[in-house]
Amino acid sequence: MKKILISLTAYLLIISVILSSGAGISASGANGYTQSQLISTAQGIVNWKKSECSLSAGDNLLSGKMLDNAGSTSCDWYVIGMSRLGFKDDYSAYLAVLKNNVESRYATGGKLSSSKATEWHRISLAVLSAGGDPLSFGKDKNGGSINLIADGVYNRGKTASIGKQGINGWIWGLISVDSKNFKIPSDAFNSRDDIIAQIIKKQLPDGGFCLSGNTADPDVTAMAVQALSSYYKSDKNVKTCVDKALSCLSKIQLESGGYKCYASENAESSAQVIMALCSLGIDPQKDSRFIKNGNSALDALMKYKMSDGGFIHSKEYDQNNPTAKPGVSNSMAGEQTLLALAAVVRLMKGESKLYDFADVKQQTEKTTKASVKSDDVKKIDEILDKPNTDNYADVVKYIEMIENSDNIKNKDEYLKKLNEAKEKIEKDKEKIEEINEEIKENISPSDGSQPDENAIENIEEKIESLDEEDREKIENSEDLEKAKAASVTNKRKIIIAVSLSVFAAAGIAFLIIRIIRKKKKKQADFIESDDEE
Amino acid sequence: MKKDIVAVFAVVLAIAVLISGTEFQSVDEYYLTHIDDITPESDTVFIAVDCRTILDNYDDLDTELRSEKYVPADGIILKKTEYVLRPGDTVFDILSRALRYNKIQLEYQGADKNGYKSVYIQGINYLYEFSCGPLSGWMFKVNGEFPSSGCSKYVLKDGDSIEWVYTCSIGHDIGSEYNGESFNNMK
Questions:
Q1: In B, which residues are within 8 Å of A476 by CB distance?
Q2: What residues does each domain of chain B span?
Q3: Contact B178 A10 (CB under 8 A)
């Protein structure tokens, strides 16, 4: 969720481009949206995202490229939103690939991130959403099981402060430990009270919260409320703090029902406020403190809906988010709207709040068997025929699927082959990294020196051994081409120089011999003529 | 006698070629090996990378980074350098090339891993976002202005001057007038 903050706080230069069309549903005033309208809007966002990933509405969103990105912001928030709405998708594939990605990131120095605790927080919420257990999720390189809540929240401070990236680290840390009321051991680096105190301490005089400065930022304020919501009834200090934050959010709400973050009114700010209200059980469509001029934050949010089902960030060009073009649906606006809709729908249905996963059953024991369909077998055969890094997520997915199924013929053989393919792809990934590193180290030009010919050959051999598709993953191959051309030129230069020298030397020798011969001949002639005389 | 003249001529020619140089290249090879040569006709851009703000906020810097290896004494990681601008080059292309050619570390997040669909610069010379406080990170300017698009989307033109600057207070310390904008390189 840090990303939104960055996005909302990220850019420059205002160019006001007012949207002329495509604004979708027009607001009908407060109390307007029914549960089914909201659900179908949410479905529209998911379908838009599918089409953006070149998938059709019938496909699972969690497939192909999207699966590959399991564990990154561009994927995880969609998983959380869809799951909390009860939408069907391939969560077990997502969980398998996510686990694999987390394990490989744990093998690096910074694990999930050297500076952002929110990586652990978002992934923990996504793991819960997909039915996994963040307290034991995969294995680290020493074979110990990975505890995302310990490493990312209560013991994060042993490596780097939870708040290294700012207040959002504390906020999302608290949301994650409370997501399933996880226990914090007494010898933990940070207790719940520490984290709560850190958040309260950062409240501004106006009641809001922000990343920097001293005026309320609606997004950060709304996130702080979401984090503190679990203690609103039990903790007096929290109640005072949250009440002040709520009056601030009520005060800065615009006549449209929406919110401005820095210069621009935008979708994400409204979405976060909606989630904040729902986390306290406040219906954003009914509470008069949050209806301005007949407009609720939900009314404001719905104005960002486009005809393709997606949502836009802002109707104006926002210098703080230049990649979000007015009139073009935007992934971040879509994911946060999806989450806000999930929060409202859950409130309407009387379900637990958005980030309270008490209702989710963990799949510790696989109760349902996966069934491998003939299409899957066809796809598996295709992959096994030509495994490359693009298929990695699919290979991980199918291993998981086959392990949990008993309707496939030659199960063991398939598993063996898939595991071999997985290993091969992992090796190829390493090889690609190695090649990229070698090109940077030994080939990219610096100080005008000629790259070593052996190094070039060595790298070329490695590239040859990769699958064709994977060869495109080599970065800076232009440097290699350049080095090759320079090396060929150089070689040719030497060959030509040597052969010309030899030729010139031979020519000179030939001339010298001819001269000597001539001289000798002349002398002989001279002697002869002498004799004649 | 004729033979001698031919031989002399051949030798003179060989020596003349040897003296004038034996570098013969195909058009492609010439293009590849001279692509970065700056000639009076070439389009060029300038790039500089500095982290001077860290010098004023040294106490906030991660302890393991407190070394001249990461933060040079004058704060300048790459002094203003001229590079040939190839057609379509973005700010990211030039940054990547300049750092590569100078063997300076660069880490970035690919465009498909975030919500911006543009490359996000995480670290240069091992200095990362949040390395020097919660409001720190890399931003870039083109011709003195903070541009409105991400670094892999900003296409450069002849004569542009890029500055990558490390901020310790989301831009306030490096002349960004906007209240909230943070790590602009972000895209």
A1: 96, 100
A2: 2-31, 39-186
A3: no
